[in-house]
Design a protein that fits this description.
By secondary structure, this protein is of the alpha+beta class. It has 14 helices and 25 strands. The strands form seven sheets. Strands 12, 15, 20, 21, 24 and 25 form a six-stranded antiparallel beta sheet that branches. Strands 3-2-1-4-5 form a five-stranded parallel beta sheet, sandwiched between helices. It is globular. It binds adenosine monophosphate (AMP) and glycine (GLY). The site of glycine (GLY) has 7 residues, from loops.
Length: about 425
C-alpha cells in the first residue's frame, strides 16, 4: 500500500511508524516530513500549498491512502480536493473540520446536539462593549477563547477581571489575527482533563486508549498553555463508566449530527474532556490526531493500523484489523527548547537519540532539522520520548531514564509527567 502522509511533527512521526509496522508492503511518502519521518518514508515532491498538485502527485504515484496530520490542511479543504479526485483520504472535510477551526461553530454544535460542555457566550469584534459588560457579570476564573485556529495558544484562563478584560482587548486588537475576530467567554470547568481519540468512518468508530496531556509549560500545571508537554496512557480518570458516557453522550451524537448535516466525519475525532465526579464534559473537539497524545497512544495499537485507516477512508471500517494493548501503559515526555512557548533559540546539535532508543524507547522528532549532516533543534517542541511499561510507574521511570540520555543546548522538559495518574493506583 502506498501512503502519503501530510505533516511534519511528532504526531506524524508516530503515525509513520505505526503505518510502517502495519505490514511489509507499506511504502510511505511524506511532505513536509522531518528527519525522523524520513527514516521510514520517502520525500513526496510537491508544493504543499497547491492542493491540485497534491492530487496530481497522488494519481501519478499511485497513492492508495492519504493521511492528513495537521488541522490547517483539513480546515483549508485538502481532504475535499483529494476526495473529489476519488483518492482515499483519512481526514475530515472542510465543513466537518469546523468542529475545530471555529470554536463558535463547535460550541453551537454541542448545544444544539445536547453534548455536555461548559456554558458560554460568543461575541464578534463589533460587540466588544457587550463582551466586557457580560464579563462583569461572570465569576472568576473565566475562560476566553479566540474563535479560530491558534496552535493551542488561543485560550486564556483568567483569574481576575483585569486579566480577562485585557485578554479580550488584545484578541480584538488582533493578537491572534483573524482567529480572534470572534471570541468565546466560557464558564471555567473544574475537574481533571483527558483526551480520547476516536477513529471513525463516519458511522462506526473505535476509541484508542484514553490519555492525559499536560498543557502548561511548568510543573504542577503552572505557566502558559503550550501545544502539550507530555502525556500518559491509559488515563485512569477515564474508567469504563466514564468511557461509556463519552461514547454515548459525546462521540455517537457528534458523528450522527455530522452525518445529518451532510458532512460525515471520516478521520480521527479528538475529544478533549473535563471530568468531574465521573461526569465528562467537552473542553474542545479537534479533527485530527492529538499531539503529543498520538505519540503515547499509538504504541498501544497492534496489528494493521494502515488497513484500519484505509477501510475508514473507504467508509466501512474493519475494526478487527487492529488490537488494543490494554496490558501496558505508556508515558511520553516532550523535550522542548528553553523559552517555549515564548521565544527560543534553535539550531543546537542533538545527540544521544540512538543511546535512548537502544534502551527500548520511541524517540519521535517534533522540531528537528538536518543541517550539514547534523541533527539540530528546529522548534519549540523538539522531541517526544515515549516508553511502554507493564504499568504507569514503570513507563514513567523508563522514560525519564531515556530522557537523560538525550542532550542539546537549552533542553527543557517537565519532570512530573504521569504523576497525576499514579494516585489512582497507589
Ligand atoms: P482548548 O484549546 O479549548 O483545549 O483549551 C486549552 C486548555 O485550556 C484546555 O486543555 C484546558 O486546560 C483549558 N480550558 C479550556 N477551556 C476550559 C474551561 N471551560 N474550563 C477550564 N479549563 C479550560
Ligand atoms: N494535545 C492537544 C492537541 O493536539 O491539540
Amino acid at each position: 500500500m502506498n501512503i502519503l502522509l501530510i505533516g511534519s511533527g511528532g504526531r506524524e512521526h508516530a503515525l509513520a511508524l505505526a503505518l510502517k509496522r502495519s505490514g511489509d508492503d507499506i511504502q510511505i511518502y511524506a511532505n513536509p516530513g522531518n528527519p525522523g519521518i524520513f527514516t521510514y518514508a520517502e520525500y513526496a515532491d510537491f508544493d504543499i500549498k497547491d492542493f491540485d498538485a497534491i492530487a496530481k502527485y497522488c494519481k501519478k504515484s499511485k497513492i492508495d491512502l492519504v493521511v492528513i496530520g495537521p488541522e490547517q490542511f483539513l480546515s483549508d479543504g485538502l481532504a475535499d480536493v483529494l476526495r473529489a479526485q476519488k483518492i482515499d483520504v483519512f481526514g475530515p472535510s472542510q465543513e466537518a473540520s469546523r468542529l475545530e477551526s471555529s470554536k463558535v461553530f463547535s460550541k453551537e454544535f454541542m448545544i444544539t446536539n445536547n453534548i455536555p460542555t461548559a456554558k458560554y457566550k460568543s461575541f464578534n469584534q463589533k460587540e466588544k462593549k457587550e463582551a466586557i459588560k457580560y464579563l462583569n457579570t461572570c465569576s472568576m476564573p473565566i475562560v476566553i477563547k479566540a474563535d479560530g485556529l491558534a496552535a493551542g495558544k488561543g485560550v486564556i484562563v483568567a483569574d481576575t477581571l483585569e486579566v480577562a478584560e485585557a485578554t479580550i482587548n488584545s484578541m480584538f486588537d488582533g493578537k491572534f489575527g483573524k482567529a480572534g475576530s470572534s471570541i468565546i467567554i466560557e464558564e471555567f470547568m473544574v475537574g481533571e482533563e483527558a483526551s480520547i481519540l476516536a477513529i471513525t468512518d463516519g458511522t462506526d468508530y473505535i476509541t484508542l486508549a484514553p490519555s492525559q496531556d499536560h498543557k502548561r509549560i511548568f510543573e504542577n500545571d503552572k505557566g502558559p498553555n503550550t501545544g502539550g508537554m507530555g502525556v500518559y496512557a491509559p488515563a485512569p480518570v477515564v474508567d469504563n463508566i466514564v468511557l461509556e458516557k463519552v461514547q454515548k453522550e459525546i462521540i455517537e451524537p457528534t458523528l450522527e449530527a455530522c452525518k445529518k448535516m451532510g458532512h460525515p466525519f471520516i478521520g480521527c475525532l479528538y475529544v478533549g474532556l473535563m471530568i468531574n465526579n465521573n461526569e465528562p464534559k467537552v473542553v474542545e473537539f479537534n479533527v485530527r490526531f492529538g499531539d503529543p497524545e498520538t505519540e503515547a497512544v499509538l504504541p498501544l495499537v497492534e496489528g494493521n493500523f494502515a488497513g484500519l485507516l484505509k477501510s475508514a477512508a473507504k467508509g466501512k471500517m474493519k475494526k478487527d484489523l487492529i488490537e488494543l494493548n490494554t496490558e501496558h501503559s505508556t508515558c511520553t515526555v516532550i523535550l522542548a527548547s528553553e523559552g517555549y512557548p515564548g521565544e527560543f533559540e534553535k539550531g543546537f546539535e542533538i545527540d544521544g537519540i540512538i543511546a535512548a532508543e537502544k534502551k527500548g524507547a520511541f524517540v519521535y522528532h517534533s522540531g528537528t532539522a538536518m543541517v550539514d549532516d547534523k541533527l539540530v533543534t528546529n522548534g519549540g517542541r523538539v522531541l517526544a520520548v515515549t516508553c511502554v511499561g507493564e504499568d504507569l510507574q514503570t513507563a514513567i521511570k523508563h522514560v525519564y531514564q531515556r530522557v537523560e540520555k538525550i542532550n542539546f543546548k537549552n533542553k527543557y522538559y517537565r519532570k512530573d509527567i504521569g504523576k497525576k495518574g499514579l494516585k489512582y493506583y497507589y
